Amino acid sequence: MGPAVLDWYVPALQQLAGFGALRSAGYGRRWQRERFRKFWARLSQAKRGRRGRPAIGAELRQLVLRMAAANPLWRAPRIHGELKMLGIAISERTVSRILRTIRSRPPSQTWQTFLRNHLGQIVSADFFTVPTIRLRVWFVFLLPEHRRRAVLYFNVTDHPTSGWVAQQMVEAFADREAPRYLIRDRDGVYGNEFRGKLRALRIEEVLTPQSPWQNAYAKRLIGSIRRQCLNHFIILNARHLKRTLAAYFNYYHPCRLHLALEKQWPD
Predict the structure, then answer these.
(1) Using one digit for the tens of pLDDT, what is the confidence trace for 71-101?
(2) Cα–Cα distance for residue pair 112/80, rounded to 1 Å
(3) The whole model's pTM is what?
(4) Domain spanning 115-261: which CATH class is it, in words?
């Protein structure tokens, strides 16, 4: 380091020390952030001639509005897909922003609306686990229906497979009319054999969008079974588990009141 550099460097250090930069880590961090901000501000000013994306043409905007008016139930993803098929380059976010300028559009069907509109045509499918006194885990398969909260079918297994679940669907609707919809989660046990059996029974499966509350009827039933029954027993084996659940459902259907049923029971 030459004399000329030292003549500049030492006074600079003394000045920084006078401001407390060498004694205060907080001041040093703020100083570095300010340098960083000014550096990128200068770069932005150098490129000020090319700010943002090009504006959307009036013709394209009118096309999006006409498509939305002709198809009231279409939202941004569907309209964006149609424009993409036509070879028109526009982002889905831009389409969404254009649609926000329309004040009166009918709301799309929500999950709760779907459940309410098809209340008498929906059955849920779900599993829950129960450990035994020997720490063996059994899986309980449930099929509750939504209209009266009744349990249409249940069974127990230690190793659920797609074939096993498909057979349970056959047994559940062997002597009753099959529902139009079946709500289930995305568990891998609902495989090809299960889906094939649903098609044979003409049942349309509806997958919950990765959220347990959207299979709320089944989850609520499982919670009731645990709180009112299984939490008060030590299960010995599969036979004991099936007998305990059967006894609970014998109480549940004629005696268990539901607020959603105006304080009536499922049967």
Answers:
(1) 877 888 888 888 988 888 888 888 888 888 8
(2) 26
(3) 0.60
(4) alpha beta
